[in-house]
Amino acid sequence: MRTMIVSPESRCWWQMGRVAAVVLLLSGSLSCGEDEVRSLGSADANTGPSAGGTIYYVDSERGDDANSGTSADEAWRSLDKVNSITLKPGDRALFRAGTRYAGQLRPQGSGKAGAPIVIDMFGEGPKPRIDGEGRFPETVLLRNVEYWELHNLEITNTGETRGDRRSGVVVGLEGFGTAHHIHLKNLYVHDVNSNNVKERGGGGIRWYCAGKKVKSRLDGLLIEDCHLLRTDRNGITGWSDHWTRPEWYPSLNVVIRGNLLEDIGGDGIVPIGCDGALVEHNVLRGGRMRAPDYAAGIWPWSCDNTVIQFNEVSGMKGTKDGQGFDSDWNCQNTLIQYNYSHDNDGGFLLICNNGDSKPPHNIGNVGTVVRYNISQNDGARTFQISAVEDTDIYNNVIYVGSHLDVYAVAHHSWGGYAHNTRFYNNIFYADGTMRYDFSHSAGNVFEANVFYGNHVNPPTDSEAILDDPQLVSPGSGGGGLDSVGGYKLQEDSPCLSAGVPVPDNGGRDFWGSPVPAAGAVDIGAHQRTQH
Description:
Number of strands: 40
Distance between the termini: 23 Å
CATH architecture of the largest domain: 3 Solenoid
Strand content: 35-45%
Radius of gyration: 24 Å
CATH class of the largest domain: Mainly Beta
Helix content: under 10%
Low-confidence stretches: 1-50
Largest sheet: 17 strands, parallel
């Protein structure tokens, strides 16, 4: 187990062919959009050079590409003009609020540490809109550049028919080495009508790292406070050609934070080929809305030390996966904590690996930790597990309403079964029905869990509590992490001080109350007992 990481503020491919499909798909490699905003850049209008660079202005309604571009009155007119120059460290290109540009933004040049190149808006009103019109694979492309920031743009890419790998924003590296400091903030990316078949799908925001002679990776990718709406096939996804362990060259310091994703065709947020990625404070409402194949909400693939926390996922459709969260293939030490999953057709969590895919390129899924999460009315199977090793699942609350008959735990085979899956201090609360299928999995441990309601074939737990856990108001969660107070413990709960201590337990519960490192702890996601 590992210590909790808190910032300041899939899927199991049951057939071997699905690993190949993910490779083909992805190697092609809060709210912020529609509202009127005033960019910080607008305060700098007509003030001349920024620190170490030049400010350029773009205005599709009043500008002219023959102008100097260095003042709002001498603004350029087109994307082609912006694309034609090589921007330098500290330069800024500001687009007038409320203007529209058809085509592709593909700027050139790199910034440097302390002097990134920035694209932003100036003036008051809606974000400037860049519309790929389906004529380009991506509307905005940052390729083989570093020290870049994109702020406050509206981006769309809708063609008359769906296009293969069509995307809104793409950050692409090939034979580049390490690219530092790529920040995508407060973007509104919507209506990207890519093909929804996995091998041909694009997405709202994507990145890829490639190169045979010179490996490429990102160090300092930040995707923050963006709004994605109706993007197909996916929301925010990455790729690396260097995902196999002999070729391992992971991206570092990848942070995906505070984004709102709605009505996504397939997968929601998928970091790939990263070490230490942080995915937090995101909201996904509606995924796998149009994809005919397998998709899940938030999940890493071939990543180490991923932290997924304080996210809300709801409305995943169908049971070709369809879970809110997933710890997937070739991943080590994934930490999934303080999340709220509800009303997902496929369930709460998939934990999987392909047991037929052996080292050296796949070292398996090892060391997943799942703690202090709340799952309400997730369907099909709460925990679906296959061919993984050494998984710890503790202090979660699982509630199923009277209309549901689901598997609380379902062990399946994907080239093998799971080994050493441990469940401590969880509350399984069934107003409906919960079932259990352990199949040929081995080394399952259940200790100090609550099984309340109708449970079919429950596991052996010598310290199980079968009485009502006395939650404040089970089943009352709505939208948002602040809506789940009904899963706190009442003062007369039998769960108080009834749990077993878990080493390296993260130090806090779902609501931020301290959890003791030793001694008796409470069962569930709420630590009511104070020591």
